[in-house]
Specification:
The protein is an alpha/beta fold and about 250 residues long. The chain is built from seven helices and seven strands; from the N terminus they run βαβαβαβαβαβααβ. It holds the Pfam family adh_short_C2.
């Protein structure tokens, strides 16, 4: 049911902590992996790990905010793998700049990477999925801050709320083509982009609000990614915002 042999998974932001972990999860189930990112040094490290699962993997360099670069990468991927069946969008940047000090340059940068980049990716890769006529699965990575905004990450929270909205909109838009669109809402997984804001007091506050009283391990996102990627396992699942957060979203006081 979870076998992805013969499927091609495109991981945008595939060199990130969470993106690379989910890429490896899909590779374990036999998917061919196309990594899309800017940092070729990081990509090389991820590639070597993925190769240990005996699948094809290749990196395609592109900035997610550059539509021409993404279109070029998409064309190269389809020419290389002959298909695009799964799209996992995991680009992300963060900032702790207080709202009163926020510049529009910083706002634009975060929105461009976290939201515009995902919109462009969905637009570009969905065209290939539609042309193939075999359906597909789009998985967007959101955040717990998308529903109840977290302190100190104003722009990031706004960008992730946008991810939830476009996910549900596109689920309706692409349903006639049998392309499912869902979002994963991770809890606190200490990725590179948020380690800098994890002070001792903030960690304590997170633990008080997380029933499982621990951070998530990136590998714990592999299961939900595999499930959503599998046409057999999640064939009637679309437009969903799925939490993997140790209970964080179930807590109030």
């Amino acid at each position: 049911m979870f076998d992805l042999t013969g499927k091609t998974a495109v991981i945008v932001g595939g060199t990130s902590t969470l993106g690379s972990a989910m890429a490896m999860g899909l590779a374990k189930q036999g998917a061919t992996i196309a990594l899309v990112g800017r940092n070729l040094e990081k990509a090389s490290e991820v590639e070597q790990k993925i190769k240990t699962f005996g699948v094809e993997v290749r990196t395609f360099q592109a900035d997610v905010t550059d539509d021409r670069a993404l279109k070029s990468a998409a064309d190269e991927i389809v020419a290389w793998a002959d298909s695009c069946d799964i799209l996992l969008n995991a680009p992300g940047v963060n900032s702790t700049t207080p709202f009163s000090e926020l510049t529009m340059d910083e706002w634009d940068h975060i929105m461009n990477v976290n939201l515009k980049g995902v919109v462009l990716s969905c637009q570009i890769f969905s065209k290939h999925m539609i042309e193939q006529g075999n359906g597909g699965s789009i998985i967007n990575i959101s955040s717990v801050s998308s529903t109840t905004p977290l302190s100190k990450v104003f722009t990031y929270s706004a960008s992730k709320a946008g991810i939830n909205s476009i996910t549900q909109y596109l689920a309706r838009e692409f349903a006639p083509y049998n392309i499912r669109v869902n979002a994963v809402i991770p809890g606190f997984f200490p990725a590179e982009q948020n380690r800098k804001i994890l002070s001792e007091d903030r960690v304590a506050a997170i633990m008080r609000h997380t029933p499982m009283e621990r951070f998530g391990d990136p590998e714990e996102l592999q299961g939900v990614a595999i499930w959503l990627a599998s046409k057999k396992a999640s064939s009637f699942v679309t437009g969903e915002l799925i939490r993997v957060d140790g209970g964080f979203g179930a807590m109030t006081i």
